[in-house]
Specification:
The chain is of the alpha/beta class. About 45% of the residues lie in helices and about 10% in strands. The protein is built from twelve helices and five strands. Bound molecules: adenosine monophosphate (AMP) and magnesium ion. Adenosine monophosphate binds near residues 97, 128, 133 and 137.
Length: about 280
């Protein structure tokens, strides 16, 4: 299994061009073995998710928040389907953040984020996140530089507060190369069943690749904290991306040492009641 150790962003200045997009750190199998390894992880992921959900009945406030960031076509949706899809959807809260609405724009950038946080026992997944407010917003100058500057520390304080209140954050940047993005965009144009996924604006955004890279580097560098570290996932190989995020999620859940709640009733007494009942139905 890949581990956070192999994927965690080292502290210090970040240069994304030195971080691989097509490697498979911590895993030496091929695609078929990687897909198999992910499926095998599924049973444990599903059980631990259920334990987390069960724990809420004991008054625990613990939850997990998976943050997915990455350029267009980096595979946030693929991770949702293949990795998050391994657990019971009833225990998962997925939020896909789009450009803010008029109402959202009237509030602080964290307002809509707070509203989407997972409750006790849930695995929350952010498909894009508050990080867009220092990424696309920075690249397109959608806020004043001073406001963007303020946001890095605001994000760190916000995430520290979440961790303090019982959240485990798993932050993943899905790292693809510009060449891989081009192939994926072209593949969408080759296949009529994928036209709906194609947005001509993605080609405009692609032209801003260097500006996005700088914005990502700054964001990663300034918001990778001990409480909420960043992981950079080589994502040119879809199977590795799915496996790596699965491994991180599994590690986070294992780290919670989740126990099934004790019965808060007398089990033997309830068994007796059912055994002794008068005919029903
Ligand atoms: P998609 O993920 O393809 O559905 O696209 C969602 C779009 O919403 C992307 O172009 C994001 O850059 C944009 N978006 C998400 N959050 C923000 C934000 N806070 N400010 C501006 N645009 C955003
Ligand atoms: Mg898109």
């Amino acid at each position: 299994m890949t581990t956070s150790h192999a994927l965690r962003l080292p502290s210090g200045p970040v240069d994304l061009s030195t971080l691989p997009t097509d490697a498979t750190p911590g895993f030496d199998g091929d695609k078929e073995e990687g897909e198999q390894a992910l499926l095998e992880m599924g049973a444990e992921l599903a059980e631990l998710q259920e334990r987390l959900f069960a724990e809420r009945t004991t008054g625990s406030s613990r939850n997990v928040l998976l943050v997915l960031q990455g350029m267009d076509t980096s595979g946030k949706g693929g991770v949702l389907r293949h990795t998050v899809g391994l657990v019971d959807p009833q225990g998962v809260r997925i939020t896909s953040f789009k450009a803010p609405t008029e109402e959202e724009k009237r509030h602080d950038f964290l307002w809509r984020i707070r509203a989407a946080l997972p409750g006790p026992g849930y695995i929350g997944v952010f498909d894009r996140s508050h990080y867009e407010d220092v990424l696309v917003v920075r690249v397109h100058g959608l806020a004043e530089p001073a406001e963007i500057e303020r946001r890095y520390d605001a994000i760190n304080a916000f995430e520290a507060e979440l961790v303090e209140s019982g959240s485990t954050l798993v932050k993943c940047m899905l790292h693809i190369s510009a060449a891989e993005q081009k192939e994926r965009l072209l593949a969408r144009l080759d296949d009529p069943t994928k036209y709906w996924k194609f947005n001509p604006r993605d080609v405009d955004e692609r032209a801003q690749w260097p500006a996005y890279r700088t914005a990502y580097e700054t964001a990663l560098e300034r918001t990778s904290t001990a409480a909420a570290p960043w992981h950079v996932i080589p994502s040119d190989k879809k199977w590795f991306r799915n496996l790596a995020v699965g491994g991180l999620l599994l590690e986070a859940l294992r780290g919670l040492d989740l126990r099934w709640p004790e019965a808060d009733f007398d089990v033997a007494e309830q068994q007796r009641r059912l055994a002794d009942e008068a005919p029903v139905g």
